[in-house]
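User: Second chain of the day. Same drill as before.
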Amino acid sequence: MVLSYQNTKLIFLVVVFFCINSVFAQQQNIKFEHLTVEDGLSQSTIKCIIKDKQGFMWFGSENGLNKYDGYEFTIYEHIQKDTVSISGNRITCIFEDYEGMVWVGTYLSGLNKFNVEKETFTYYTYNKEDNNAISNNSIGCIYEDTKGNFWIETYGGGLNLFQKETNS
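Assistant: Same format as last time:
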């Protein structure tokens, strides 16, 4: 059997690929840590997770927002008549914007902006009298594009463009 130049070149590339691949395919030991209610988590059904720029892990559950520092949890829950607590406990999404602000979407309770220094929440909810209010209180997704536009997807209310400068 006579190999053509093209076949020889192809065989050479395949051999090089496997040699390089085997050099980089070293075994990694990945450790999983299972966090439960016994560890301080507010509830076992987790809907969303992010790691913020400071290294904190945020877990959105069916019963509150959980911040984990690697050792213990801080739980943020809605407190009736407390206007700076989170607006609701059923967390659907968490997002950290380019400025490091943590935003939290809820099911039926609107959008929340978390002030890290004061550990307080500002919330934005649907108001049929206000054309600049969010279109629905059930938040599905939060996203910031490269131009700084802030997009809020809602269940049943469509897509909202949020102006952070004017809070509308």
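The first strand starts at residue 46 and ends at 51.

User: Great, on to the next one.
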